[in-house]
Amino acid sequence: MGMIINWLDFVRGLLRTGFNGILVVSFLGALTAWLVRAKHVSPFGGVGRFARSVLDPLIAPVEARIIRAGGSARSAPWWALVFVFLAGVVVLFTLGVVRDILVGMYYASSRGPGGLVRLAVSWTFGILQLALLVRVVISWIGGSYSTIGRVATALTEWFLAPLRAVLPPFGNLDLSPLIAWFLIGLIQGMVMRVL
Predict the structure, then answer these.
(1) Is residue 68 within 8 Å of 83, Cβ to Cβ?
(2) At 173, is the secondary structure helix, strand, or coil?
(3) DSSP state of 74
(4) Which of 62, 75, 91, 170 is the most exposed place for a label (fewest CB within 10 A)?
């Protein structure tokens, strides 16, 4: 198990280094494409031809979504850069989660059945907090009726609804997810101390 964890650490380090390089290159590409689109650089010179032939096809999928959402094509290179950044963060975060799961399983199994029970309880609270976070983020971007949004709602509504009934109204601001996040952490700490 130690060899797998070491290998995941090595891969994660390589990906982090590669991601940093890709991010720098993406920034330079976004800057170049933006300069050509904003007409700060001639679209008919060498840099402009490079931007149109190499960068624009890479930016085109993001640009289509930006235009459909009512945005400007001029801002598409920067949104593409944001997409590259977020994709890298998701990949590195996912590898970190896989590594942490493997480490947790290894240490829990070495402590016998009690360790496995503690691990299961910890994962349950972690899933609740993740569902809460997903629900909040999806509500901001309008995906509450997507499959992920429905799953997050099903996992969290049973404890958010009573909180909303008790909390005083704050206009359009719903503080129940924030209160629930802290309550989940508090309850998890108390349960883990008992186990």
Answers:
(1) no
(2) strand
(3) G
(4) 170
Helix (H), strand (E) at residue 135: helix 113-141
User: Residue 15: CA atoms inside 13 Å, Cβ hemisphere, count?
Assistant: 17
Tell me 53's DSSP state: I
Phi, psi of 15 (to 5 degrees): -65, -40
Distance CA 62, CA 82 (A): 10
Residue 155, CA distances (Å) to 101, 158, 189 in order: 21, 7, 20
Distance, CA of 76 to CA of 83 (rounded, Å): 10
Angle, alpha carbons 176-182-184 (nearest 5°): 95
Classified as helix, coil or strand, 139 is: helix
- pTM comes to 0.63
- Name residue 175's amino acid: L
Q: Given 3-state DSSP classes, what are the helix, strand and coil percentages for the chain, each rounded to the nearest 5?
A: 85, 0, 15
Backbone angles phi, psi at 182, to 5 degrees: -70, -35
What mean pLDDT is predicted for residues 155-174?
Answer: 86
Structure tokens at 109: 């199994």
Q: How far, rounded to the nearest angstrom, does the alpha carbon of residue 57 sit from its chain's CA centroid?
A: 25
Identify the three-state secondary structure at position 170.
strand
What is the C-alpha separation between 123 and 43, in angstroms, rounded? 54
List, for residues 11-37, the tens digit of each pLDDT value: 888 999 999 999 999 999 999 999 998
Q: Which amino acid is at 78?
A: W
